[in-house]
Amino acid sequence: MILTQCAVCATELGLTLGKKCGRCSTRYCGPECQKQHWESGGHDKLCKQIKKAGGAEQYNANNRYTEAVTVAAEACAEDTKGQTCFICTQALHWKTKEGLVRGCSCRGTAGFVHVSCLAEQAKILVADAQERNLDNDKWERWHTCSLCEQQYHGVVACALGWACWKTYLGRPETDWIGCYAMTNLGNGLAAANHNEEALSVREAHLATLLRLDTSKEDILIMQTNIANSYQKLGRLEEAMCMRRDMYSGWFKLKGEEHRDTLAAAINYGSSLMTLKRFKEAKALLRKTMPVAQRVHGESNELTLRMRVNYAQSLYCDDGATLDDLREAVTTFEDMEPTVRRVLGGAHPLTVATELRLQLARAVRAARDGGVSAIRDAVEAMTPGGA
């Protein structure tokens, strides 16, 4: 359950407070709001429709999914013009009439697809794996392209998050699929910058995990996601403290070379930079960057993110020397072609790398000229997390 507010006054109800409509399970803080919603809020006309759809949660998920698919198709319309889906081979989906999307690192004529086709494919693969008692690696199809193996980003990830949630939301709390579906939804909302909603989903999910006394790893994953939401919402001190604890937690649980530990280091470094604690950020990244390069390779997305943040920590520091600025520019120039080749031109990290390269060059050029406007522009940027 992720509908955690009263349908009338938006009072926060958490997972258990308030009351529900006896027919469709729409949630209210009390009888007064329920009565108002029925008499003047239109619920008397929608109640049967909501029940028929499977209840308030399912009805909401279905509607939000439809909206998200429309947004994703419109955002991708220019890129997908004249193309066909690599799954169903049609331009328009035969049933939903939705347009195509592409939100990964595929390029050329590859990777064009309908969100509905991706969702149906993922659903079939996961069900087949369950039936044959196979590992849950097929779950990746809910968030990762089967062609280029890069995770979907932006509004496409959001649409897939809603697709996943509407598919599995009725599962028991103890079912790992329901747990993964809520994680997927939170990540999708965050990818599309629906940060308040992402935080609400993640906090509800964490409360469920704590109640079920689940594994330390699952708790750390969700706490990491919540810290990321804090960062995006400007709750910077909370984000930094939580990310510091997450880095320490992953380090103790998985060791310094694990992907989750390195991702936590990137996020912690990002928070330090946002708070202008550049020396601490540089020290952290200088310690962890060689580990990422050695274990995961120069072209791995984690390594690339770490290098981007490190270069940014060099030129954003008011105390940066000319050598620091030169190193920042050189680092960006060296890695920009790799980022574009690995992630594609539309990926957020590619866009950020190109912009930061321009800013680093401008700061270096203005180093002795006192051009405050350029420095102000640099300080206004928000460092990216993992």
TrEMBL record:
Q: What is this protein called?
A: MYND-type domain-containing protein
Q: Name the coiled-coil region(s).
A: none
Give all residue intervals belonging to the MYND-type domain.
6-47
Which PANTHER family does this chain map to?
Answer: AAA+ ATPASE DOMAIN-CONTAINING PROTEIN-RELATED, ATP/GTP-BINDING PROTEIN-RELATED
Query: What Gene3D superfamilies does the entry give?
Result: 6.10.140.2220, Tetratricopeptide repeat domain, Zinc/RING finger domain, C3HC4 (zinc finger)
Q: Which domain of life is it from?
A: Eukaryota
Instruction: Keywords in alphabetical order, please.
Output: Metal-binding, Zinc, Zinc-finger
Q: Does the keyword Zinc-finger apply?
A: yes
Question: Which GO MF terms does the UniProt record name?
Answer: zinc ion binding
Decide whether keyword Metal-binding is in the record: yes
